[in-house]
Amino acid sequence: MKKEECFYLGKIVSKFSFKGEVLIKLDTDEPESYVGMESVFVSYNNNLVPFFIEKSSLHKSDLLRVKFEDIDTEEDADDLMKAELYLPLTMLPKLEGDQFYYHEVIGFMVVDTSFGEVGVVTSVNDSTAQALFEIDRKGIEILIPMNDEFIDKIDKEAKIIYVNTPEGLIDLYL
């Protein structure tokens, strides 16, 4: 399995018990959806390695407490600290209406109400306080905040995101 075929689920943040249990900080608004998984892919030595789950439960509502098969000691768990976890894209819950996952809008054309065609989404930067569409317009990068007030409509069939940005925002980049 390749990372491109997966989505980031979370990261192992600490050990929980001397029996090899770990706590995972999930990157989701609905951690309860991931209790009862059979397996996950763990990023280990630059490879995605499948790990099977013996048991899991929510810990303090936002952490997932997991006991992996064959991880039976603190030393085994130490080896997995800070490892990232992934699941196949096919396991993402379907979203309704204009909701989308970041990876889904890569390659979508962005059209602004007053400016017209802005360019193509090359990625989503979610490392800032506000997630940003990174858009390529003939070699020039344009950043538009992913703000509900700016997004009018998303046409998934035509691969177009219709936005209504504040006057002058796009001109800042040109």
Write out key terms for the chains shown.
174 residues; mainly beta; Elongation Factor Tu (Ef-tu), domain 3; SH3 type barrels; 2 domains; 6-stranded antiparallel barrel; 6-stranded mixed sheet; 1 helix; 46% strand; elongated
How would you portray this structure in words?
The protein is mostly beta strands and 174 residues long. The strands form two sheets. The chain has a six-stranded antiparallel β-barrel with strand order 1-2-5-4-3-6. It is elongated and about 60 Å long. β7 and β8 form a beta hairpin. The protein folds into two domains: 3-89, RimM (Elongation Factor Tu (Ef-tu), domain 3), CATH 2.40.30.60; 102-173, SH3 type barrels (Roll). The model has no long low-confidence stretch (mean pLDDT 91). It starts with 5 loop residues before the first strand and ends in an 11-residue tail after the last strand. The protein has one helix at residues 74-78, and strands at residues 6-15, 22-26, 39-44, 47-59, 63-68, 84-88, 109-112, 116-125, 132-137, 140-145, 151-155, 160-163. The relative contact order is 0.15. It contains one helix and twelve strands; from the N terminus they run βββββαβββββββ.
Shape: elongated
- Structure summary, number of beta strands: 12
Calculate the mean pLDDT score and round it.
Answer: 91
Strand share of the residues?
over 45%
Helix content: under 10%
**Low-pLDDT ranges:** none
